Amino acid sequence: MRKLIVQTFLTLDGVMQAPGGPGEDDEGGFALGGWSVNYWDEQMGQVMGEATGRPFAMVLGRKTYDIMAAYWPNAPEEAGGKVFNDATKYVSSRGRPNLEWSNSVLIEGDAAEGIAALKKEDGPELQVHGSGNLIQTLLRHNLVDEYRLWVFPVVIGSGKRLFADGTIPVGLKLVDGKISTTGVVLGTYRPAGEIVTGSFA
Known about the structure:
Blueprint: E1 4-11, H1 42-52, E2 56-61, H2 62-71, H3 81-86, E3 89-92, E4 104-106, H4 111-120, E5 125-129, H5 132-140, E6 146-152, E7 172-179, E8 185-191
Parallel strand pairs: 1-5, 1-6, 2-3, 2-5, 3-4
Antiparallel strand pairs: 6-8, 7-8
């Protein structure tokens, strides 16, 4: 069995849209692309290097695939290009795109069924980067084994959210946590079953 890990940058109010730069994802008139860039520090680079320094494959929605495929094939090796170019990319798309980035594989048929089948295979962990729409499908089908959530000290107010309306309620367990010098909280969470409610009264 392979673990499926959602690795996502979030604002404090839960927005995951376009952290990497203006124009990355303008859908819905989103005008604050690049909100994560000025918070990056050495520790965050180290944690990201650890996550990509062991074998992994990626599971990507079509829009995120196109964004990454436009950048990484020409990125310098020291900037992380090699690990992303060498990794297998499993792509979910409603169409039949021409996947020209090296080691790219189209998930045939239903995305949830295809990814559930991937999880049953032997191989490295499956990392989901970006891919907000695909993540909603993964959440609805209870396919996420771990969340690596980087929460940035910024509030945006609108945009695509990781846990959107309709997310199935679930408890999470914090299994690792760090704080960057810029105030970014790097938390690793695993599903911990149903939410247990109570009362202080």
